[in-house]
Write a structure and sequence with these properties.
Its EC number is 6.5.1.1. With about 600 residues, this protein is of the alpha+beta class. It folds into three domains: about 5-170, DNA ligase, ATP-dependent, N-terminal domain (DNA ligase i, domain 1); about 210-415, DNA ligase/mRNA capping enzyme (D-amino Acid Aminotransferase, Chain A, domain 1, 2-Layer Sandwich); about 425-585, Nucleic acid-binding proteins (OB fold (Dihydrolipoamide Acetyltransferase, E2P)). Helix content is about 35%, strand content about 20%. The chain has 22 helices and 22 strands. A hairpin with a 2-residue loop joins strand 7 and strand 8. The longest helix is centred in the N-terminal third of the chain and has 15 residues, at about 35-50. The structure holds adenosine-5'-triphosphate (ATP). Adenosine-5'-triphosphate (ATP) binds near residues 211, 239, 292, 332 and 395.
Amino acid sequence: MTDDNSAKPQLDSLITFSHIVNLFQTLEKKKGKKQDVLIGFHQFWKKRDKHSQTYPYIRLLCPSSDRERNTYGLKELTLAKSSSVGSFSNSLYDILSNRCVVQHGTITISDVNKKLDELCLNQERESQEEVLRYFYMNCTAEEQKWIVRIILKDLKIGISADTVLTHYHPDALEQFNVTNDLKKVAVELMDYDVRVPAPQISLFNAFTPMLSQKTSIDDVLKAMKGNTFWVETKLDGERIQMHKDGSNYQWFSRKSHSYTYLYGSHESEGALCNLIHKSFRNEVKNCILDGEMLALNTETGRFLPFGNLKTAALDAKANGLNAKLRPFFRVFDCLFLNGKCIMESPLEKRYGFMLKIFEPQKNIFDVVPHAEGNTVEDVIRLLDESMLKLEEGIIIKNPLSLYKPSSRGEDWLKLKADYMDSIGDNLDLLIVGGSWGEGRRGGKLSNFLLAVFDEDRKKFISVGKCGSGYNYQELDEILRVTEGKWKPYNAKNPPSWLIHDYDNKNREKPGIPILKLTEKLFSLKDMVISPEHSKIVEVLCAEIVVTDMYECNFTLRFPRFVKLREDKGPDDCLTFLQLKEIIRHTRGK
Ligand code: ATP
């Protein structure tokens, strides 16, 4: 702000909050063409005073993008949000409108911002109550309803923050996604007609990371433009970027929330800094790494759902290497190195840097490996393998791609079995064997050999394996109802009720021979369970394909567990004849 400017009264201290409430109401009620109202509003502010700061109203219009007021720590309101922002703030309005003392709003936009800043900066209960009392005493019921929505960061007006920015200036959204600085965007992009150069990421400024687009198997090759592609595991944690400058660190989530208080701001502290600092090579002065943070249970080797990350970080912070739970940072990109932004180098080059800048530490800090592929068969094989490893899916990347913050283009694709259509029929199959899980399901049977009943031979014959589609509770339920009934598989004396032909070298074992085995898993044996003790599971699959890996000579492509059928017994198992009938119906699909 210039001196000249500061001498003038600012627009936000002249214009009442009711003005913006009118805008909210209009947008909420208007069906279609909402952007015209928004554009008119932007123009109003920009025209009224060329030097006015638009930031005060923009931040009220985009509360979810306001990084200066990240959280209010108002538990009561957050809890209320879980009911539904709209209904909560509406019922609040109903209550307040009967009691409210203020009938005409005089509070200005500047007053609201000041009070919201106070609410955020001082989260002591008393001072927060004082601010809320202020709103109660000075705002109409309608205004209070909107203040609640601003605090909950969800206006429910049918227009997103992205749209607000897009209509503010053609470069605003891109600038915001890279800088995450709403004030800078509002102030520097006042003039709609003056374009600005593409923004660059910089140290200790969070940016919105590059995202992956959903794909289907058939679309992968086209998107990869005929190039060899890379396939990485789709890690199931929280997206985190790490900024490092010497021995100082900062960590940010995908929405640019800082997690530095958890993972550490300095080499000597935090759940990770103190462990990983020594991993970096001396030549690395500064860098920005993009990756996924996982919560690892070091005792079971299981990864926990990402809601456990905070607990894991606090445990690691308190107990260092002895912690039971620990965050594990897996890096898949490097965007800034020794003073230079390298987003515009191809992925394969950035990956090369990643391998050189630090020494991996097992289960603490490493680089996500990738497999290479060229064909549709490669995609199918790699997705199959990932499902058997009980992973969420795969991410396919073009090694020649540049890093584009916040973009969701064709260079990074995500593929999960869930995205695929399935054959119409769910199949009731009998669990006949089990193998030991890796990773987050490590140490438990979790990958099941399934069978159909062959009426001619009067035996169960193997048809496939399923290790995907269930959650922990469902898996634990299967294990609970079969507990104590599993027997190690004995190749010399295979069970009389099952035909799987283990000696056939092409045959899939109930165990995990096609997976990369860890030392621990090598010592464990495949297990079988006899029909009278076993359970029927309902399974769906993308298609049924020919194979010699199972006795049926057919198998299920991308099988997913639907539910345990406690109400059914081995007699209700799908028969080989019925399976062939389904194949005929669906012609393999
Ligand atoms: P999206 O993040 O695409 O909006 P979403 O929140 O539902 O969708 P998913 O579809 O489950 O998330 O997965 C996308 C997420 O996958 C990314 O945000 C990223 O954190 C994560 N991810 C996991 N592994 C990788 C990887 N190897 N490379 C890039 N991203 C990965």
